[in-house]
Design a protein that fits this description.
Elements lengths: L1 E2 L2 E2 L5 E11 L17 E11 L5 E8 L7 E7 L4 E6 L4 E8 L2
Antiparallel strand pairs: 1-3, 2-3, 3-4, 4-5, 5-8, 6-7
């Protein structure tokens, strides 16, 4: 992850952050079924945090899976009808978080 704190003086600070992860290819069953094989993929997340000068309040705006990578979390094969099922990631997700310390 890469981040950098930027001072805003009496208005607090901003901290942009970007992180990257790589997952190599993997199989979702013991038979290495091609229909539920997951190739390697990259994930990039980013956020921007503002924290007040007293450091007791912060707001975070961010995005998970910035590049909207489609990838399989898990998969199964149904032997009776030769069916395949997979659970894919939700894709790009935006979020806002508020933090208050009392």
């Amino acid at each position: 992850a890469v981040s950098k704190e930027i001072s805003l003086g009496d208005n607090g600070s901003l901290v942009p952050r970007v992180d990257w992860a790589f997952r190599s290819e993997f199989e979702n069953d013991a038979f290495n079924t091609p229909q539920i094989h997951q190739g390697g993929y990259h994930l990039v997340n980013a956020n921007l945090t503002w924290e007040n000068a007293d450091e007791n309040m912060a707001m975070v705006v961010g995005v998970k899976n910035l590049t909207d990578e489609k990838y399989l979390h898990t998969g199964i094969i149904g032997d009776a009808f030769q069916s395949y099922e997979g659970l894919y990631d939700r894709g790009r997700q935006w979020y806002i978080t508020a933090r208050f310390n009392f």
